[in-house]
Amino acid sequence: MKPIILHATITALLLALPSAHETCAVSPGAAKAMGNAVADIVERVMPAVVVVRTEAMRYRIAQDWFFGRMYRIPERLAGMGSGVIISRDGFILTNRHVIDGAAQIEVVLHDGSKYTALLVGEDPQTDLAVLRIEDATRKEFPFLEAGDSDALRVGEFVMAIGSPFSLRSSVTLGIVSQKGRSIGALPYEDFIQTDAAVNRGNSGGPLVDFDGKWVGINTMIQTAGFSEGNIGISFAIPANLALNVANAIIKDGRWSRPWIGIVMEESPEGVRIGRVLPQSPAARAGLQAGDLIRAVDGSDVREAREVQRLIMNRTAGETVHIRVARGKTTVAADVTTESMPAPAVLFTEK
Questions:
Q1: I want to staple 9 with a disulfide (CB 3.0 to 4.6 A). Which of 37, 121, 334, 343 is the partner?
Q2: 127 is catalytic
Q3: What is the tens place of the pLDDT at every residue in 101-160?
Q4: Among 82, 87, 123, 127, which one carries the catalytic annotation?
Q5: Where are the beta strands (DSSP E) in the chain?
Q6: Would you tell me which CATH number, out of the four given (2.40.10.120, 3.90.1720.10, 3.40.640.10, 3.40.1490.10), belongs to the domain 1-255?
Q7: What CATH homologous superfamily does 258-346 map to?
Q8: What is the pTM of this model?
């Protein structure tokens, strides 16, 4: 799917904006042009966005009070979310919580066609899952190309597409409110925050930029009190991480979280290595406790989450180039990542 470039439209809109000495509103023509450009993007993107319908079996415990016997009563639970087709051969990326516990999965395309989908794999750390459409008669499906979520800027326009409250093919427009958000809901978080309205049923749908590429997977919202409605604070998993996880699941059936074996501490000077775990990739590469991490893969870093994100964008077995300050000298280290071990192994001294 070719991206749609809006440079000319946005330039026309900016030229139509009033100067500091003018009080007139944006010209209707410029606003109409931007609206048409957004509609063009939606028209091209929508065929790759799907409704994900699930059916799960749950057993409710009941008791016959006359005879005192316990029974398991089966209950069928229906659920619904969204997803995005990421390859022409029918692989779909969605949230893990959308399909969690599902016995049957069905996807509905924008044109109304319905297909059975099989679970390829899932990752609880990032709340992502990959499905594949099962259909022997159709070999190609419309798909959406991934954009570079690292290149997203705060204030940039984005669209959330999905099926909130069973309203299929819904589109909302907003801006990137912030990047690198962590709210304590998942083991690893590097959320894109947006004010595009996202509600129940949007989970798993794409966050789309103005080039017509998906740059995130809509995952959760911030609510007020006991309300489940949107209050303008939504979170999406960045596309760079989501695609990395998806590709690993498609290839190996699972995602191995890349790990180098350091405990980081933030200080006024920057990110300091507080501890290097024994026999870890970092230990073998010669990193030491007290080193100040200055750059990862050529990108300067000031916060621990930046180091973590750059490592997480790799796959286990790849080499990460790390530059540290050690006293008055600069040390460069090539660290080959490994799959993160289980917690019981991770914190056992050897």
A1: 37
A2: yes
A3: 888 999 999 989 999 999 999 998 899 999 999 887 887 899 999 999 999 999 999 999
A4: 127
A5: 49-64, 69-85, 91-95, 104-108, 114-123, 128-134, 157-162, 170-181, 191-194, 206-208, 214-221, 234-238, 258-259, 262-267, 270-276, 292-296, 299-300, 319-326, 329-336, 338-339
A6: 2.40.10.120
A7: PDZ domain (2.30.42.10)
A8: 0.76
